[in-house]
Amino acid sequence: MGASLYGCDIADAREIIPLRPATRLPGAPAFVRGLINIRGTIVTVMDLGLRLDPKRGPTKAGSILVVRHNDRVVGLIVDRVEDVRALTTIVDGADAGVKGGAAGIVKGIATSNDATVVILDLGALIKQVLL
Predict the structure, then answer these.
(1) CA 56, 7, 110: angle at the middle one, nearest 5?
(2) pLDDT for 13-46, tens place per residue?
(3) CB-hemisphere CA count at 13 Å for 126?
(4) Virtual CA dihedral for 113, 116, 118, 119, nearest 10 degrees?
(5) Domains along the chain?
(6) Beta strand pairing call for 5-7 and 32-38
């Protein structure tokens, strides 16, 4: 998202689809774009950039990363999907000192090719969206 790199467990990723319009939900937070239908499954779509940085405007171009955690499926609007890489967490989320929009949803921090990657806790993120 923007200049920052975020990662998640590949086991949670189901598919990547092109960005498409979502049906807005009245009373939902601004970062919840709405609902889409993916082959008969109704999926809640969240703008990850807006969730992590409320001052940022809605994401206008990108992809939807469809993720599954337990029995829940959510679409995350992202600017781009970079790569699949094996990462080793170097700082646990509890020790990362993360503040702002990412607080409470960071599993840890890792490095890849000299870049810092924030590893997101998709379970915590999905709970926030679907409650």
Answers:
(1) 110
(2) 889 999 999 999 999 888 899 999 999 999 999 9
(3) 18
(4) 30
(5) 5-130 (2.40.50.180)
(6) unpaired
